[in-house]
Amino acid sequence: MSDEMFALLGWAWDVDLATRLARRHPVRPAAIRTLTGVKDLIRIDPDHAATVDLTKPLLVVPLPCAQPPGNRLVIDGWHRIHRALGLGLEQSPAILLDPGDERACRLRGGDI
Q1: Is the pTM of this model over 0.85?
Q2: Which domain of life is it from (predicted)?
Q3: Alpha-carbon Rg for the chain in angstroms
Q4: Which helix (H) or strand (E) holds 84?
Q5: What is the 3-state secondary structure (H, E, C) of 38-74?
Q6: What is the DSSP letter of 21?
Q7: Is the N end or the C end of the chain the one with fewer CB atoms within 10 Å?
Q8: Phi, psi of 55, rounded to the nearest 5 degrees
């Protein structure tokens, strides 16, 4: 089992594996607000958010059951998003995994 996991509703991803898979993909700037669709479902520790490194890329996966543009989900980086929004930032570095990588790091949910 992974050390770090992101779970949302009935879905979960192995963040450690996603981080390793992300090394194959480029870091690109992402519009933060386009990634915040589920923000109200995420628990944020404001004290922790105040200390996060905003240069570390968000990890984003494409959801197989949703259509663009709402098919992207941040599986690592919600405290960074919280801090960035609080600072008025519009963009953050991000890595978008491909569908094969998303499936490889998904622990439950979807068609599993």
Answers
A1: yes
A2: Bacteria
A3: 13
A4: helix 78-86
A5: CHHHCCCCHHHHCCCCCCCCEEEEECCCCCCCCCEEE
A6: H
A7: N
A8: -85, -15
Which tokens go with 41? 């479902």
Identify which has the larger pLDDT, 3 or 60.
60
20: left (phi over 0), alpha (psi -120 to 50) or beta: alpha
Instruction: Kindly list the structural domains of the chain, giving each domain's residue range(s) and its CATH number in brackets, ordered by start.
Output: 5-108 (3.90.1530)
Residues 80-91 have a mean pLDDT of: 97
CB 97 within 8 A of CB 60: yes
Q: Which of 30, 44, 104 is nearest to 73 (CA)?
A: 30
pLDDT, tens digit (0-9, with 9 covering 90-100), for 64-80: 878 777 789 999 999 99
Cα(60)–Cα(87) distance, rounded to whole angstroms? 21
**pLDDT tens by residue, 53-62:** 999 999 999 9
Place of tokens 């960074």: 80
The residue with tokens 């259509």 is 67
